[in-house]
Design a protein that fits this description.
The protein is α/β, with parallel strands linked by helices. It has a domain at about 90-120 and about 220-400: 3-Layer(aba) Sandwich (Rossmann fold), CATH 3.40.50. About 40% of the residues lie in helices and about 15% in strands. The chain is built from 15 helices and twelve strands. It has a six-stranded mixed β-sheet with strand order 3-4-12-9-10-11, with helices on both faces. It has a four-stranded parallel β-sheet with strand order 7-6-5-8, with helices on both faces. β6 (about 165-170), α6 (about 175-185) and β7 form a beta-alpha-beta unit. α8 packs across α9 (about 250-265). The longest helix is centred in the middle third of the chain and has 17 residues, at about 220-235. It is globular and about 75 Å long. The termini are far apart. The chain binds pyridoxal-5'-phosphate and zinc ion (ZN).
């Protein structure tokens, strides 16, 4: 066995007991598993150089924004198992206008994960999870989803010739995501109930049947999602920002960010930790309540409700890992109303960037934290935009064209097909 093959272990993130691939959680304590790597023994400068060189290299592994960092993701995975579509490599916007909008003195940075192959950050975790499933010889993979995990799973499973089964809350998945999932060939089970019900059902199903579970309780997905952080740090020349804000639902991403930052510091890639700022929707904020109240256990929200369907989750699975991530980075949680989310989305959209509703929670959260004095206006902040604008066209139509349009609505205009009418309208538009 070579060194690479011994360099990753699955262990319980809570009690350290060795884990196994077939279990969703630790039989001893109920904790989730995580992957522990033997981190490469290499000078940080040399490691940074290696990552940078690959970006200009050829071939799918070099050009993927996940597999460029493979030493820190899945060093032992055989290359022939890897299913990639060049995920990652997403743009980091710098916006003065949105920085001002959020109450900051300077610009805000927006890492747009909607620019992934299926339009959300889920592809970064899925390339790793499906590759691992292929290495294990899985014939079928499954997840519960609010829509983006299912789209991503459908795509990667099809690329790997595996059967994809997805459990979604009936009537609570946006049109773009459901259409994408069906088109990409996954079998969809619409569950009567919330995401949390779907999650319970898929856990029960994968316990009984030889189906590989690919929710973010799967520790390999977390490894892939860490690369959002590695890539944004690299884009900032490894000068860490003061804070990273992200929308928080099932808390897989918050956990991944915490692990990535921890490893980046241990490797010497960065010398200080940015604060993590997970933002929840007010109607689905059990994690924010947990952190704010310093309670021992997460109290699930029985009826989660928000326009941001991607984070409409009442019983987030990764709350223990996510709480550690917030504590270790001296972070802060916050909750924002649907109105605040939709206003932030309208601002991001009008800036020419665009994102789905849940993504805008990050910027809405930054604005709220600046207002409450919990975040200094001179902070350098990166907001992660988790999903693409086109994922949820109904939310856009409601805001701009609905019976109760939002304050920055931009509905289309209909005129008689006559040059005079058009000229009069244009004269008014151009002032
Ligand atoms: C999945 C998802 C989230 C939430 O991420 P978690 O890891 O579940 O906290 C946020 N935004 C979008 C667009 C998503 O698809
Ligand atoms: Zn345990």
């Amino acid at each position: 066995m070579n060194e690479a093959e011994t360099s990753s272990a699955i262990v319980c993130a809570e009690c350290g007991a060795p884990g196994s691939e077939g279990q969703a959680s630790c039989p001893r304590c109920g904790g989730l598993f995580e992957i522990r790597h033997r981190l490469p023994e290499i000078e940080p400068a040399a490691l940074r150089e290696r990552f940078a060189e690959r970006r200009t290299g050829r071939g799918p592994l070099a050009t993927s924004g996940v597999w460029r960092y493979r030493e820190l993701v899945a060093p032992a995975l055989p290359r022939e198992a890897i299913v990639t579509q060049g995920e990652g490599n997403t743009f980091l916007y710098e916006s003065e206008a949105l920085g001002r909008w959020a109450g900051l003195d300077g610009p805000v940075w927006l890492k747009h994960e909607g620019h992934n192959p299926t339009g959300s950050f889920k592809d970064r975790g899925m390339t790793v999870g499906v590759s691992r499933a292929r290495e294990l010889g899985a014939a079928a993979v499954a997840c519960a989803s609010t829509g983006n995990t299912s789209s991503s799973l459908a795509s990667y499973a099809a690329r790997a010739d595996m059967k994809a089964l997805v459990f979604v809350p009936a009537g609570k998945v946006s049109a773009g995501k459901l259409a994408q999932t069906i088109a990409l060939g996954a079998r969809v089970l619409e569950v009567e109930g919330s995401f949390d019900t779907a999650m319970r059902l898929v856990l029960a199903a994968t316990e009984r049947l030889p189906i590989y579970l690919l929710n973010s309780v799967n520790p390999w997905r977390i490894e892939g999602q860490k690369t959002i952080v590695f890539e944004l740090l690299e884009q900032l020349d490894w000068q860490p920002p003061d804070a990273i804000a992200l929308p928080a639902g099932n808390l897989g991403n918050t956990s991944a960010f915490g692990k990535a930052l921890d490893e980046a510091v241990r490797l010497g890639l960065i010398d200080r930790l940015p604060r993590l700022l997970p933002v929840q929707a007010a109607g689905a904020a059990p994690f924010h309540r947990l952190v704010a109240s310093d309670a021992e256990r997460l109290e699930p929200e029985p009826r989660p409700e928000t326009v941001a369907t991607a984070i409409r989750i009442g019983e987030p699975r990764s709350w223990r890992k996510a709480r550690r991530a917030v504590e270790r980075t001296a972070g802060r949680t916050t909750a924002v109303s649907d109105e605040q989310i939709l206003e932030a989305k309208a601002a991001i959209d009008a800036a020419g960037i665009g994102c789905e509703p849940a993504s805008a929670a990050s910027l809405a959260g930054v604005r709220a934290l600046v207002r409450s004095g919990e975040l200094a206006p001179d902070a350098r902040v990166v907001c992660v935009l988790t999903g693409h604008l086109l994922k949820d066209p109904d939310a856009i139509t409601r805001y701009h064209c609905g019976p109760e349009p939002g304050p920055h609505a931009n509905p289309p205009v209909r005129l008689p097909a006559e040059p005079e009418a058009v000229a009069a309208w244009l004269a008014k538009e151009l002032g």
